[in-house]
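Notes continue from the previous slide.

Worked example: a multi-chain complex. Inputs as given:
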Amino acid sequence: MSGHTDERTGETDPVDLLLESARDEAVESSFHVTGVMMQYYEVCERELWFESRNIEIDRENPNVVRGTHVDETAYDEQRRNLSIDGRIAPDLLDDGRVVEVKPSSTLVEPARLQLLYYLWYLDRVVGVEKEGVLAHPTERKRESVELTDETEQQVEDAIRGIYDVIRSETPPPATEKPFCESCAYYDFCWSC
Amino acid sequence: MNDNYHIFSDGRVERHNDTVRLVTEDDEKKYLPIENAEALYLHGQIDFNTRVISFLDDHGVAMHVFGWNDYYSGSIMPERGQTSGQTVVEQVRAYDDEAHRGNIAREIVAGSIHNMRANVTYYDNRDYDLGATLESLDRRRDEIKSVASVEEAMGVEASARRAYYAIFDQILPDGFVFGGRKYNPPNNKVNSLISFGNSLVYANIVSAIRATALDPTISYLHEPGERRYSLALDLADLFKPVLTDRVVFRLVNRGQLSDDDFDSEMNACLLTESGRETFSKEFEQTLDRTIDHPRLNRKVSYQYLLRVEAYKLKKHLLTGEAYESFERWW
């Protein structure tokens, strides 16, 4: 199966590139998209570029520590971690829904996109339809997330966007965002 | 996470329950609260065992060891320190590219001249006429922009530092004759203070570099040394005027050091235990001072500026964004 090609550049569409290598292990591709890359793409493309280059900063950052702690402890009893092809690692609830746990609802869109990507991947690569649930244990809130024509489009646009960001030789310039100050890369971006 | 503990007495550091304690030779026990510690500095003859090293490792605390003459002899760094192959590759690439290496080297020299100049300006505004030195430093600062080789950049740095050190005898009170920089060993009180101060700057920068996955042996201004962390030497040049020299001036001008704080033998002059204690106390207070950082929009300690400098260099190497060396802005 050959993918669609981009009319402007003649290159394979990143979505097809990703699907081909995910479906057939004989197809080698260095282009992988993880759940956290989806989040970073939505939050900050510069952070995504850093992540793609393994530029890790300040693991002792309190926000990083807090997020990890919530992730490791929330719904511990009913959650099963599922790793697929070493590419995505969604968590499954006992009732079969895919759950994404977030420490707070301030950055809800990135978490939603990550969850949508898992649902999309499960549907397109593994061939199972799943429902998703976005959970904020500290606020005792849950909302359900589904794959629709519109959200599928959102996921595929993000895959193309991620491809462009990580293929670039240089990171996107730093731009001040409201949540910059709580980012583990803050000092790295703004120390100048 | 930025308290440093200095241990001057001889004895033993050991893990005791959930703390580290120092047991001195006369069996006095001191506890070191480790939660907020950045590093332990061992200046005396200290015994320790693997248990205490694992404990420090768990808490991410480094241990720097100094030899008999205050020279830095090595570090025991937490295993959790970052490593990144990509960072090292980019460091080496920049070193290997003459133009790139030259740019970084020139930027470091420009920054250190600026920081020396800041000290001269301070005293020029306080009853000393140091206009000629300021002019001389300005000329070096112009000169550095156009040097072709790293060797020449080193030369400009050395002559700037000579011009700068030449004012020390004017600024320092009677009884503290400097007469130019001598080390290996230091030949007088002022040189022994500068040597000790610079070795503290150096060790603090080793810690800062190790927090960033940069390889401390790959440097740009200094030649990568076989036995030294030459990247720490590069970055130390920027901070010596702000840290070492200011502490020396402060202690000496306030008369906080007496003859008992120095030990002179043959042609060498070294600080005694009490001298080192006085010095490092003032040095630590200086590291803890804070300053408004215009870009980070918050107060940062002088010590954190060292970490920031390592971040800046790492960012430059990995993203290609310009590196502007630390220049005192206050």
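Summary box: The first strand of chain B starts at residue 3 and ends at 7. Chain B is about 50% helix and 15% strand.
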